[in-house]
Write a structure and sequence with these properties.
This protein has 716 residues and is of the alpha+beta class. It is 18% helix and 30% strand. The longest helix is centred in the C-terminal third of the chain and has 28 residues. The protein is globular and about 80 Å long.
């Protein structure tokens, strides 16, 4: 390693002064820093480029940007100090010629031109990527890489092929060094390691070593202390991340650079697997961190009026009714800011409306200018982890931003009557059992209530003696199946929440909510995504834990955008500037009522599903605004104008009587809300931070998504 590999800086993250313990110290790598931050004498920008520690065009890293990059390994996405170094050159259908010959080629990026390279060809066969050819093309001087592999067992025909390249290693050795950090006395180094997802089968063993290189007079010295070593044999182990805590008290008070090394541990021609290291931090054991943990349970399509505590005449949610009714707070007038899943969850995580954070649909990226709840809490010393059921909440979604670990069941099948909820909650519970020593933020997400509403075994005959609703427009058959599923969800949540609260001694804030409700033809549509009537817009919101007065209910209007600022204040973290939501922490602590300004919502779903199940295109977007009992909906007409609907929900909760229809006298409150709603899109544009549609779309991106089992995320 050249001297630039030992370059160093340690960034202390600003956190609230009320923390009970010193926050973790993240180990930054040289490649994490912007050009202006490289200051050590003797290590020029050219040196750094030559050693591969910086990209040719360094990206500026803002003060709130995550210091590491997301990496998927063993089916789990984590922030890591570096990826495998592979660059995807091409992924496309190719033709298998006679004799099983397959020709592939791809363009080299500027960062690989003129470098010694290693390359590999993978074919997508039998539902998985399989490495078929590894070669060393030498220096990539011509700007293009090509190869022909022979797979004699394959018949002529199409196959999807991927060509990867990476910088050649020096004898199979890869070393990543941190910028120097001062080790606190009585502390631990915490990190995880795995190998790249494509390296788990048929590769050589790899030896891994973590060392602390001592600094003398501000420069790296010859003395290095081995902190950890192991041999990892991908051919003998099941894919996994391995989490390690190393006591580094023996080097407390010293300035060191932490080196993460991997090297070949076996002979032969097998490819050396690429080791990935998940975000290492130094944790000072100054005093026990007694701040509460946070668990948010997000149930997709959870309908407010189907909850027992919120008006259902069926016994659908006995656990949630009793738990949150007696031990926490229930909000009776919470709205989602969007009836599109990713957009709604992102508003919950950011405290921003959809038109501001920019994730308007299920295929758009989050701007790096936007902070998330997970990122805020991670910088404040919380572990952050998510357990989801894939789809719009999968590892390729923008929801992963800020999470240390994001585990998604990408193989979820909505037609599976048993579903995955029990397994999702079990995995989340197991993680808590192993990580209850310090505060954490966990997001748990499930599609159990999503259409087609197939109750699991043992729940299919519930509520069979109930009479049908008098309102013939409601699809009562689908609704009762949905509420049977809801009872199952409630039973599962009861076991999970009880175990979590017991394990943490009650020192946990528990939140249950949803991205949107569910329509059953109340206004001529099924599902959600295009209408802004209450059956879609109104969502359950229940909270319990420290700082929340027990047995309280609130009927004032609020939105999921108000959740992030409320939660960070409850946990003692400062909210970022420019957040649009409002903290309700003081009201939660006192039980006193609150009053907020009008709250807005958006609908941008592509299709509106009618009674027959046919998806009809409609002109979007639509907007809604609520304040207390009053509500206004605005949606575009085919002629380019805007159609307004006004409802007094206190006397017309089913939204049947549009007070602006028929040319009658409009109520005074309607004019006030109309002015607010008309100005909402323009106001959002002025402060918008969106990144827009994802760059990883198009044919190759879709192929890759499907190959990874993530196709459901593009179909929802």
């Amino acid at each position: 390693m050249a001297v630039a590999a030992f370059r160093a800086v340690m960034t202390l993250l600003s956190v609230s002064s009320v923390l009970a313990t010193q926050p973790p110290l993240p180990l930054y790598m040289a490649a994490d820093l912007a050009e202006a931050e490289i200051e050590e004498p003797g290590a020029s920008q050219e040196d750094l480029l030559e050693d591969g520690l910086l990209e040719a065009e360094p990206q500026q890293v803002g003060p709130r940007a995550a210091p590491w990059q997301p990496v998927s390994a063993a089916g789990e996405r984590r922030l890591a100090i570096a990826g495998s170094g592979r660059v995807l050159l091409s992924m496309a259908p190719v033709q298998v010629a006679a004799g099983g010959r397959v020709f592939v080629y791809g363009e080299l990026p500027a960062s690989l031109l003129g470098q010694k390279l290693e390359a590999e060809v993978l074919l997508y066969e039998e539902g998985a990527w399989k490495r078929r050819h590894v070669f060393s093309p030498g220096e990539g001087k011509l700007g293009r890489l090509s190869s022909t592999l022979v797979a004699p067992e394959r018949e002529p025909g199409p196959v999807v092929a991927a060509l990867y390249a990476q910088l050649a290693t020096n004898g199979g050795v890869r070393t990543i060094s941190s910028l120097p950090v001062s080790i606190p006395r009585s502390s631990q180094l915490r990190f995880g390691y795995s190998v790249d997802s494509e390296d788990w089968k048929g590769l050589a063993p790899v030896s891994i070593t973590v060392r602390a290189r001592m600094f003398e007079d501000g420069r790296p010295g010859l003395q290095a202390v081995k902190l950890f070593s192991a041999t990892l044999d991908p051919g003998q182990l099941e894919p996994a991340w391995f989490d390690i805590d190393v006591d580094v008290s023996s080097i407390g008070g010293r300035q060191v650079s932490v080196e993460f090394e991997s090297r070949s541990a076996g002979g032969g021609s097998k490819v050396v697997p690429a080791v990935v290291w998940s975000s290492p931090v130094v944790v000072a054991r100054k005093s026990r961190d007694r701040r509460p943990s946070l668990v948010i349970v997000g149930i997709d399509s959870l309908r407010y009026t189907s909850m027992g505590c919120c008006g259902s005449r069926r016994d659908t949610t006995p656990f949630m009714d009793e738990w949150f009714g007696g031990n926490g707070a229930i909000f009776d007038n919470a709205s989602t800011p969007s009836v599109t899943p990713q957009s709604a969850w992102m508003s919950l995580f950011t405290g921003l409306y959809p038109s501001v954070h920019g994730v308007l649909d299920n295929n758009e990226e989050l701007s790096p200018q936007v902070d998330t709840l997970a990122a805020l809490l991670s910088r404040g010393g919380y572990r952050t982890v998510a357990f989801t059921e894939g789809g719009a909440a999968g590892t390729s979604s923008p929801l992963v931003a800020g999470f240390d670990s994001f585990v998604a069941d990408e193989g979820y099948d909505l037609a599976d009557t048993e579903g995955r909820l029990a397994g999702t909650l079990e995995a989340a519970g197991n993680w808590i059992n192993a990580h209850s020593d310090k505060p954490f933020f966990m997001f748990v997400h499930s599609y159990r209530l999503h259409a087609p509403h197939l109750p699991p075994q043992g729940y299919g005959s519930l509520f069979k003696d109930d009479k049908l609703f008098a309102d013939s427009r409601v699809d009562e058959g689908a609704l009762v199946r949905y509420e049977r599923e809801l009872r199952y969800v409630d039973d599962q949540l009861g076991v999970f929440v009880d175990s979590v609260v017991r394990k943490l001694g009650g020192n946990v804030v528990v939140v249950v909510t949803s991205d949107h409700g569910q329509e059953f033809l109340e206004h001529g549509a099924r599902g959600a995504g295009s209408h802004l009537y209450e059956e879609s817009l109104k969502v359950p919101l229940m909270m319990s834990g420290p700082g929340i007065k027990k047995s309280t209910r609130y009927d004032a209007s609020l939105s999921l955008v108000d959740l992030a600022p409320t939660l960070v204040e409850l946990l003692g973290i400062d909210a970022p500037p420019g957040i649009q939501g409002v903290s309700l922490a003081s009201s939660l602590g006192s039980g006193l009522p609150f009053s907020l300004s009008p709250r807005f919502s958006e609908a941008r779903g592509r299709l509106r599903v009618d009674e027959s199940g046919k998806g009809l295109r409609w002109k979007s977007p639509a907007y809604a605004v609520k304040q207390g009992r009053y509500k206004l909906i605005m949606q575009p007409t085919s002629g380019g104008g805007q159609e307004l609907e006004a409802y007094d929900l206190a006397i017309d909760p089913a939204e049947r009587n549009n007070l602006l229809a028929g040319g009658g006298q409009a109520p005074a409150w309607a004019a006030t809300l109309t002015e607010a709603l008309m100005g909402y899109p323009v106001a959002c544009q002025q402060v918008a931070r969106g990144a827009g549609p994802s760059a990883q779309r198009g044919y190759a991106g879709l192929l890759k998504s499907r190959a990874l089992g993530e196709a459901t995320a593009r179909k929802r």
